[in-house]
Amino acid sequence: MNEPQQQWTNVIESKHSLFQLNLKEVWQYRDLVIMFVKRDFISSFKQTILGPLWFFINPILTTVVFTLVFGGIANLPTDGIPPILFYLAGNTLWGYFSTTMLSVSNVFTGNAGIFGKVYFPRLVTPISTIISSFMRLGIQLILFFAVLGYYLYLGEVQPNYWALFSPILLIFLSLFSLGLGMIFSSLTTKYRDLSLLLGFGVSLFMWFTPVILPTSLVKQKLGNYGFLADLNPLTPIFECFKYGFIGSGDFNMARLLMSFTFITVVLLFGIVVFNKSEKSFIDTV
Predict the structure, then answer these.
(1) Are the beta carbons of 190 and 276 closer than 8 angstroms?
(2) How confident is the model over 53-91, as pLDDT tens digits?
(3) Which own/partner contact pairs does 5-14 have at CB distance under 8 Å and 24+ positions apart?
(4) How far is Cα 145 from Cα 142, in angstroms, rounded to an integer?
């Protein structure tokens, strides 16, 4: 005897395409974004004595150590830039990039408990991370501008109109950390080894970014292979930032446009991977 074929009256399925960000839905959950930003900001200083002063203490200590070790003991050149200003500029940008990327890469595994209980656009969490990190960057830029003002008063730096381009540089720096973070966040739901290797990889990546070593020195040491230094998409962003505010750096517009193109591709790939993983990650985390 043949069983009657079942016909479903309601079918629940995801309406998201792989390339869809669905920012309209994220905007509807803007109160949740604000709540996550406050949570990230407050949790950074919870049970600390100095509180928000750590925003200044961290880059100051790192800059002082770099100045003493690499500028003093190792006597590495800084493209004619005062060492403190050179290392502070690099540390400010690098601290924002590395902190944001590592935080976004922990979105799925770090919020699995919340994701498994209630629904909200998963993109809310990386966006809130980007905003909270941007607030930290804004505070640390105050320190950078204070030191820059001192050397500007002494006449040792010469800012130019490229400094006005810095908001676009910071936006693409955010997008790159967001794209990479979404890719690694999706991959670590299946391959937990990556979460252990990621911290080491980010520390290693810093040596290929003009934070400690100026690009001119790297190219000089690499000789005919100096073009490898330009393959890092962060290099043109860091060099343009220094060139705009300090007036010195290995800056090239063509390399900057190539960097923006590469970052756009990484971001689109990150969106695809993130959208694909958010549908099934809860079964693997």
Answers:
(1) no
(2) 788 888 889 889 999 998 888 888 888 888 899 999 999
(3) 14/279
(4) 5
